[in-house]
């Protein structure tokens, strides 16, 4: 038995992860270069190039919002996504509304635990499925065009505003069922930080300080959860 | 030449497609490898299929919501860029904000009648530069993050799943409280989504209903969405 456990761990750590890390690095860095494809085409095919002052002004505006998230988000979501999920989720975007929920439901459906080797492999399948489905639906949508979507009754379009909070509630409960005490802790920390943000008490931080809310919520909950585990207040 | 003719031109579509193709290739490459190595670590065919199938089922609702958001981008940025940015890297809110910053930097409001090709190009530059950091940082440093995760667990294997559940609850508490504290239809959507999921998963687990596990998230999100829309 112990030998078998050793072998499966070796497959994961000696074959799977090195393969994923090598190809993840190659594909994500290739994608970083290819993300400049449209501006390259605009400059070379159409001769359209904004002044460097305009590009810099746009860049400074956006990086003041997104710059902190470049680091905070990968680190905060890593314990959930694992190595393969991190490469895929940050390549494909739409993380909280699509990739994380699909990773979580895949693990529930396969009956594997989040944070284990099996969990990492299964969440990869869920995220891959979500990428394929999303590209298919958006491609159909862009071919049919905005006219078709505009033809939908206003009520139907407005209703989709509510799908995101419903997903957040469902995923929160899926994990809170496993650790109800930590669920309460997380809501208290997240609620307090959100309140601070809303009341303007985080305004001393540079940029849009919602990055402070996410990092304190995630790592604050980890710190309290670990403390509770060490005192036997929760079990795995 | 109207800027939208350039935005919807064939060269722009080719450039956009290349990025989306890399994203799809990575997904298929990782999918194939996970399937092969998943079996080697002892996962059954049924578990692998259930994981993939439930991911696909649950992606439909959010993808349709993204499609609704894509309309907002389509009218001011054309098809190629909107399709590319939402299939790859971005999200609707982020892209709208970045595009707005880009056009404002040349003194034009996004989607305004005087929107021209220079404003369009600066919007695309801003969207590109604003998001490239995520690709570079994850491309270079993802394996190093595993060391951080192990450090958080203090070298104890048993603690790793607890750390993951804490991180997930922390992240979704952050996403949730921002909606709950609005005290409007979004709060109701959150509560109904949460309640439905609680009932479905408890039932699925106690009676061992595999199909219900796979559909639980899909059913919960639509129930929350539909009930909350009566309160709008």
What is the secondary structure topology, with strand pairs?
The complex is a heterodimer of chains A (236) and B (232).
Chain A: H1 2-34, H2 37-44, H3 52-92, H4 95-110, H5 117-144, H6 146-150, H7 154-159, H8 163-178, H9 180-198, H10 210-230
Chain B: H1 3-7, H2 10-40, H3 45-77, H4 79-87, H5 92-104, H6 117-152, H7 160-180, H8 185-207, H9 210-229
Helix pairs in contact in B: 2-4, 3-4, 3-5, 3-9, 5-6, 8-9
What is the CA-atom radius of gyration of chain A, in angstroms?
21 Å
Distance between the termini of chain A: 22 Å
Number of E-type strands of chain A? 0
The topology string of helices and strands of chain A comes to HHHHHHHHHH
Radius of gyration of chain B: 21 Å
Main sheet: strands, sense, barrel of chain A: none
Number of strands of chain B: 0
Question: Which class do the helix and strand fractions of chain B yield?
Answer: mainly alpha
Estimate the mean pLDDT confidence of chain A. Answer: 91
Describe the protein in words.
The complex is a heterodimer of chains A (236) and B (232). Chain A has 236 residues and is mainly alpha-helical. Chain A has 3 domains: 1-49; 69-162, no CATH class; 179-236. Helix content of chain A is 82%, strand content 0%. In chain A, helix 3 (52-92) runs parallel beside helix 4 (95-110), helix 4 (95-110) packs across helix 5 and helix 4 (95-110) packs across helix 8. The two termini of chain A are 22 Å apart. Helix content of chain B is 82%, strand content 0%. In chain B, helix 3 runs parallel beside helix 5 (92-104), helix 3 runs parallel beside helix 9 and helix 5 crosses helix 6. Chain B has a domain at 1-152. The chains are: A mainly alpha (236), B mainly alpha (232). At the A-B interface, helix 1, helix 2, helix 3, helix 4 and helix 5 of A face helix 2, helix 3, helix 4, helix 5 and helix 6 of B.
Provide a short characterization of the protein structure.
The complex is a heterodimer of chains A (236) and B (232). Helix content of chain A is 82%, strand content 0%.
